[in-house]
Amino acid sequence: MKQVNKQSHQRLFLGCIGLAFALLIGCSKPSVDYRSHTNLRLWYDRPAEQWEETLPLGNGRLGLMPDGQVEHETIVLNDISLWSGGEQDANNPEAAKFLPEIQKLLFEGRNDLAQDLVYKTFVCKGRGSSGVPYGSYEVLGSLHIDYSYPNNQGKPQNYQRELSLNDAIANTTFMLDQVKYTREYFADLANDVIIVKLHASQPGALNFQLWIDRPAKFEVTVEGDELLMKGQLDNGTDGKGMMYNARTGVKLSGKGTVKAVDNQLHIENAQEAIIIVSATTNYKNPNFETQCSELLHKAKEIKYATLKDRHIQSYQSYFNRTSLNLEANANKDTMPTNRRLIAFASDPNDNGLIELYFQYGRYLLISSTRPNGLPPNLQGLWANSIRTPWKGDYHLNINVQMNHWPVEVANLPELHRPLINLTKSLAEPGKKTAQAFYHADGWVAHMMTNIWGFTAPGEHPSWGATNTGGAWLCAHLWDHYDFGRDSLYLSEIYPTLKGAGEFFLNILVPEPKHGWLVTAPTTSPENSFYMPGTTKEVSICMGSTMDNQLVRELFENLIKASQTLNIDEGLRIKLQDAVKKLPPTQIGSDGRIMEWLEEYEEVDPHHRHVSQLYGLHPGNQIIPSINPDLSEAARKTLEHRGNGGTGWSRAWKINFWARLGDGDQAYELLHNLLEPAFDARVDRRKSGTLPNLFCAHPPFQIDGNFGGCAGIAEMLLQSHSGIIELLPALPTAFRNGSFDRMRVRGGAEISAAWSDFALTSVLIKATNNNTFKLKIPDNRKAVFTKNGKNIDIVVQDGIADLPLKNGETVQIVFSGLNI
C-alpha cells in the first residue's frame, strides 16, 4: 500500500468521522462513487467493418455479435456446445513400455535423446488436436438482414452503436431520411433465446429481408413463417457427429406483413419487428429439436417489454453484486471506445476505462457460461468460423484456468461450476490415460481437452507432454471450496482430488542428484532450453518448477481435505511423506527462479509463459512476507522476462506484480495489455486489445480479458496467504476509490473505500462461520462495529482476528495515526 504522511491522515480525519457516523447508523457498504459517468458501456460512431469490432452478447449458452451495418447487417451466432468431433481412444498402449528408458536418459542428463524417444513413442494415437475426431468449437451461423430504404436520399446521421454492461443489451441507432431507426439486441438469460428488436420512428418505414446460413453442413427450410437451419457436423469416424437446430421467427407490432420467399423472410411496411432466434444441439440433449421449437414459441407469446425486463433482472442478479469506483481523473466516456483505447495508449489518464475493463471481464463471464453449462473456452463463447483458432478448446496449461481467475473474487462463484463439472468428467477417461501411458492408478489430463473428454498427451511433445493439466484443474476445485468452505461440496470433489493425487504418488520418481520426487517426462509449458554447451533446443525434462509447485499444492490441498472430512488417514500419511521429498523452488546463480530442475539457458528469454512463477500466482508458495528471498527472485525473473508478451501473458504479469505488492508495475502491465491491436484496421498479428476490448493473443483469445479483470482485483484485495490484505498493490493512478462485495477465501464479502491512498472504511460480511484475519494498515486507528454495536478487537502484529458467523458483519472505520 502507498505510504502517506501524518498530515494526509489529519486531512482525512473529519471526512472519516462523517463516514463512520454513516456506517454506525446502518450503512450497508462503505462506497463512494467517484465516477463522473453512470453508464458502463462500449460505444462507437460507425458500423463494425470487422468481426473484432462487433459487440459480444451472450446468455451463457447462446451468443450473438451484430455488426450494425446500415444496409446489410450480419449477426454472428454461437451455441457453446456446438463441436465437431466426438469421443475417441487416443491412448497409446505402447507408450508405457518406453517410459523407463525415457526416464533413464533424463537421469543421465541426455534430455535430447530422451526427447527423441518421447517424440517417437510417448504421444497420443491418431492426429491428436490437429483434426477430427478431436474436433473443434464451431460458429453456429450468421443471421443476415438486408434492409430496404425506398426513399433513401442520403447518408445516415447521428449513427451510434452501444453495448451496455449495466443491462447486457446492445443497440444501434441512426437517422435516415428523417426516420430514426433503432435496433436492440440481447441474448435472453431468462428465456434462453436471442432477441433482436427493430424499430422505425414512422409507420411502414421498416422493410427488410431475413436469412440465415453458416460456412458448411447446413440446410435451411421454411416452416410456416419461420426459418429452420439444421445440420450435422463430422465426428471423424462415421460422419454422424453433433446435430443442431436454429429456428428463427419474426413477430410484428402493429401493421406490416411477414412472408416466406425462397428460404428467406420478407418483412414489408412495418414499424416494429421482434426477431427471435432459438438454437439447440444434441450434446447431452436428445430432445434438442423439440426444445428448440418450444423455446421459440414460448418467447413469441411473451410481450417484448416483459422479455427485456426478465432478461435484465436475471443478468443483474449476477452483475450488480460487485462494483468498482475509481476517482475519475479524466472523463473520456464521451469518446468512442476504439478512440478511447488509442488515447489511453499515449496518456493512461482514464480510470473510467479501468473500471470498464474490470466490469467487462465480469460481463464476459456472465455472458459466456452458466452454472449448468460448459465453461468458457479459448474464445469464451464467440467464434466466427468453423476453424476456430486452436480449435477453441480448453488448454490446460493456463488458458482455461485464467478464464476462471476472477470468478470467486469478483463474486460470480456459481460460474465456477461448469469448470468443476468438466474436471470431474475427466476423471474417468483420465484413468484410462494414466494406465495406458504410465501404468499408474488415479487419473491424469495433459495439456488440452475438449467437450469429448480428451486426456492423452498432445501430438507434439514440446507442448503436449505436460502432464499436470489435471493438477491445475484441481486447484480450481479447491479454490471454490476455499472461498466458500462448504463441507458438502468438499465431499463431492474429494474423489476427484484423490484420484489426481494418487496418480502423482504413482508416477513420481526419485531423480539421481538429490533424491527428489519428480515428474518425468514433462515440460515447462511450451518453453525450451539449450542442451548445455550446445545450440540444440530441447523441451523434454524432468521435474519442471511448475510441475513441482502444482504437485505440492495438490498434495497439500488433498491433505487438508482428508483432515477436514476425517477420512483416508493412510493416504494422508503417504502424501505428507511425499511432500517432504518434492523439489523446492530453486533460485539460480543469476538470482532468478529456476524454470527447470537444472539451470538451463532458455531459448527465448522473453517467453510468454512464466510457468516457474506459478507458486507466486495463482499459487501461494511465494509470499513476500513469508518468502522474501523467493519473492526477490521472482521479481528478477519478471524483470528479465520483460513487460511484453502476448495478450494473456501481459494479463498474467499484472497478477504477478500485484502479488509482489508493486502496484505501479502491475498498472504498467495493465497499460500494456490495453495497447491497441489496431490502427485503421485490426492487426491480427499484434498483441494487446481489439476495438471491442477483446484481448488479442493474437488473434482473439478471451483469457487475457479474464486475467486482466483478475489482476485489477489482485491490486485491491488479496487473501491467498490466509490473511485478508486490502489495497496490497495500489497504483499511483488509483488515489481515491472504493469497491463493493468482492470475495475472500474463508467465506466473506469485502467492501472498502480509500482516500489519498489510505483506507478509510471496510465492511466484512461473513458467508461462512469463521475467524477472519485482517491486516490493519500501519499505525492506523480503527473503530470496529459488529452488527451495529461497537466492539473491542485486539490487533496483534498488525493483524486483527474477527470471529464471525454466517450473515454477521463487521464495519471498520480508520482515522488518524495510532501513536
Fold and architecture overview:
The structure is a single chain. The protein is α+β, with helices and mostly antiparallel strands. Helix content is 31%, strand content 24%. It has 19 helices and 37 strands. The strands form nine sheets. Strands 1-6-7-8-9-16-13-12-11 form a nine-stranded antiparallel β-sheet. Strands 2-3-4-5-10-15-14 form a seven-stranded antiparallel β-sheet. The protein has a seven-stranded antiparallel β-sheet with strand order 17-29-30-31-37-33-34. A hairpin with a 2-residue loop joins strand 7 and strand 8. Helix 2 (99-107) packs antiparallel against helix 3 (111-121). It starts with 5 loop residues before the first helix and ends with a strand. Residues 1-37 have low confidence and may be disordered.
Distinctive features:
alpha+beta; globular; 819 residues; disordered N terminus; single chain; seven-stranded antiparallel β-sheet
SSE order and pairing:
Elements lengths: L5 H19 L16 E4 L12 E2 L3 E5 L5 E8 L19 H9 L3 H11 L19 E7 L9 E8 L4 E8 L2 E9 L6 E7 L5 E8 L5 E5 L2 E7 L10 E10 L4 E5 L2 E7 L1 E10 L6 H13 L3 H16 L3 E4 L10 H10 L4 H18 L25 E2 L3 H4 L2 H5 L7 H22 L9 E2 L11 H4 L4 H16 L2 H21 L1 E2 L6 E2 L10 E2 L6 E2 L6 H21 L3 H12 L20 E2 L25 H14 L5 H13 L3 H11 L14 E2 L5 E2 L6 H14 E2 L6 E2 L10 E8 L3 E8 L2 E9 L3 E6 L4 E7 L2 E3 L3 E2 L2 E6 L4 E9 L2
Antiparallel strand pairs: 1-6, 2-3, 3-4, 4-5, 5-10, 6-7, 7-8, 8-9, 9-16, 10-15, 11-12, 12-13, 13-16, 14-15, 17-29, 18-19, 20-21, 22-23, 22-24, 25-26, 27-28, 29-30, 30-31, 31-37, 32-36, 33-34, 33-37, 35-36
Helix pairs in contact: 2-3, 7-19, 10-12, 10-13, 12-13, 12-14, 13-14, 14-15, 17-18, 17-19, 18-19
